[in-house]
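User: Structure please.
Assistant: Input sequence and predicted structure:
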Amino acid sequence: MNRILIFTVLSLFICFGIFSCDNFSNQPQEVDAQVDRTVSYGKKGAQFPKLSENTKIQIAQWAVFDDFEMEAKTLNGSTIEELKVKTERLLIHSDSLTKKIPDTLNTNLVASRLMVVGTRTKLLHQEVNRDRLDAAKIENHINEFNISVVNFFQQLNEKFQKDAIDEQRKDDEKRELKKQKKFLDSVYQAELEDKN
């Protein structure tokens, strides 16, 4: 009888131990809710591509772009509270940019880069407004946002570089056609003179 009692008690302890370990390992690890709210996030002084003069001239009609650019450039090095405000503004600006793309910029490449910027902004905004903050995730979202803005600015510059190259090619073709026409006219003129 003692053996059965000892075996039962020992079995209960073993079962209790197994269930306790299993429950402990299945609990999600919580991120410290006491994240220092005075810490700056992102690379302070992060650089974005400079827009070419031709690009600046073309985007002058895109009124919201300047506000978006200023917020994007000052996002890095912000505290949590500043990030909450800045991402809210960036959401509004990126939405306005998407709705009011000027005809000169309305290409699939520009629109898709702008859509990625909007998505990255939304993800960052969600992360900084969570109840439990995760500094590593915030840094990652800021980095992804920065990459999307860099790609967007590069696409704007490339679009106008390509337009300038296309325009130069058209001018070159017109000049070549004029030369050929002038040459053919002179050959025709010479043939007329030879007949006379």
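The longest helix spans residues 135-195.
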